[in-house]
User: Fold this.
Amino acid sequence: MKRIVPTLILAILWLAPARPASAQQKPDVKFIADTLVVEADGSCETDPDLATLTFNISAQDKELKKAYESATQSVQRIVAVAEKGGLKREDIYTGALTLTPSYDKDRNKKPKNYFVQGEITLKVRDFSQIGPVLDGAVQDGIVDFRSLTYSLQDEEHAKENAAANAMKNAVGRATSALAQNNQKVGAIRYASLDVRQLVGVAQYYGNQVASLTESVMVSAEPANGNRAAAPAPPPPPPVRPQKITVSATVQAAFQIQ
Assistant:
């Protein structure tokens, strides 16, 4: 055994020689014995087909029952607006309402106020429904719109296309490199795939429509003393979704023929 150990150490050192720092930065193409290792990128660009609308529900009152009823009514109004806009019931997600009491300095006394909060999420597959739903929510006094996000219903399909494109580019790069020496690409011996995050997922936050969600009760008082209600706020501006890109990187080792 004492004779074998030095031999193994020398063999390992021969197989893994020290490389300069510049060579350790993952070159696109490198040769190892009769194997060619290639790294290539690929991507898939597609239009989003799913929009997610999120609303925050909140209510406050000195009486617990009134606070809870007010929050419940807000949820019901959002659901009614969504169904009127053409959304299916399974695309409307209502979370649980949470209750938080507010006390004065003495927590042993009755709470000063009760806060009830919740969240509702709408999945919109027909983008023409977004405007009417947002408009209806604003007109009905639901002023806590939080965000609008565009995404993909089937992200996995886009990732598969990006990975296939990356592998196609890797094969093409390997074929081009070996053609210089009249060699061909053989069977693949190893492959490593890295799919990056989605790029281009558009988000539209509630603070971007703050000017559109002001209370319609704001009014001006004319000289005769009669209050005139301000006009209802206009609907939120349309948001044009940009394309979504999924990128992938593959590192593959091919046999050299």
User: Anything to note?
Assistant: The chain is about 25% helix and 35% strand.
